[in-house]
Design brief:
With about 90 residues, the chain is of the alpha+beta class. The protein folds into two domains: about 5-40; about 45-89, no CATH class. About 45% of the residues lie in helices and about 15% in strands. The protein contains two helices and three strands; from the N terminus they run E-E-E-H-H. It has helices at about 45-55, 60-89; strands at about 5-10, 15-20, 35-40. A three-stranded antiparallel sheet has the order 2-1-3, with no helix packed on it. It is flat. About 5% of the residues are buried. Bound molecules: zinc ion.
Length: about 90
């Protein structure tokens, strides 16, 4: 069943509703207000990257992969530096 995220305009409460069809009369779980809006759930980071690569071709794909790899290396390096600093203390 799909999961929909809603946000209440009255109490700003965010909540999730599972329903298989477009449910009418969905209410805020806290204040029961019907003044709610659907929030589009942000897709996982990975799918964004894949979509991004699909739009590109040839050398651009290679460069995008290289950039992603160096980004991963940089994060790894930052993590190991942090660990080294912690060891020194
Ligand atoms: Zn509410």
């Amino acid at each position: 069943m799909p999961l929909y995220q809603y946000k209440c305009n009255r109490c700003q409460n965010g909540f999730e509703v599972r329903h298989s069809y477009r449910a009418l009369g969905t209410k805020c779980v806290l204040c029961e207000s019907e003044d709610i809006q659907r929030v589009l759930a942000s897709p996982p980071q990975r799918s964004i990257v894949i979509k991004d690569i699909r739009k590109k071709t040839g050398a651009e794909v290679t460069r995008a992969i290289e950039e992603a790899r160096s980004e991963i290396e940089r994060v790894k390096e930052q993590k190991s530096q942090r660990v080294r600093k912690e060891v020194k203390k």
